[in-house]
Automatic annotation (TrEMBL):
Gene name for this UniProt entry: rsmG
A cellular component term, taken from the record's GO annotations: cytosol
PANTHER family named among the record's database cross-references: S-ADENOSYL-L-METHIONINE-DEPENDENT METHYLTRANSFERASES SUPERFAMILY PROTEIN
InterPro entries: rRNA_ssu_MeTfrase_G, SAM-dependent_MTases_sf
Organism: Pelovirga terrestris
Protein name: Ribosomal RNA small subunit methyltransferase G
Superkingdom of origin: Bacteria
Amino acid sequence: MKKQMKQGAELLGIDSLSEELVECLLLFAEELLRWNARINLTSIRELDGVIEKHILDSLVVTGLLDKPSRILDMGSGGGIPAIPLALALPNQSFFSVDSVGKKINFQQHIKRLLGLKNLQIRCARIEELDSAGLEWNGFDVVLARALAHTNDLLKMALPLIGPAGIVIAMKGPEGEGELASIEDRWHRFYEIPETVVTYQLPFTGATRCLISVRRKDD
Ligand SMILES: C[S@@+](CC[C@H](N)C(=O)[O-])C[C@H]1O[C@@H](n2cnc3c(N)ncnc32)[C@H](O)[C@@H]1O
């Protein structure tokens, strides 16, 4: 499995993964499946599927996170993409939010197990998070994977993102269509799109799309 993870990363153009990082990512994947027998964290049941569709897919975002940032993952579920990214980018600060307590308990377990100091975790509804009430005021990057339509993500992110911050929507093949249907009102607040990256997962060839949108300076 370690070889598969490294090979997949190479095929996706992700910077080479250290042995220690691969071990941590693998442990996360195994724990995700172990807890999945009791609580619903993922529909994927096999380790190779978790590695490709959750871990490697999360790591593709590292290519868009080049400078030290405060990063919010909205609706992170079992910690995806926040946990693989926090492991891969120890100098970036992550804040992971989901409204389901059992999923947050799993993330807390992983944080303890892997000693993840750059990850904060909160059980809350996104709409009830107010940047003024957070320790961090205005995120540089807001991520969301499999949470909602891009229009809804832009609405959720607006009160939480700082000036010139970016929203990255992690999408499947529907991404291009969603981009075309972004409502006019969001062009007042965001540069749409900042970038779009379309890629294929390395083993199944499934299509993924990263839509990146920058908030305009106030
Ligand atoms: C389909 S799952 C995706 C989880 C994870 N991002 C992934 O890619 O595996 C969507 C997650 O968003 C959470 N969620 C949905 N609406 C939310 C909201 N308004 N506030 C916080 N979390 C929310 C759900 O509890 C669920 O865990």
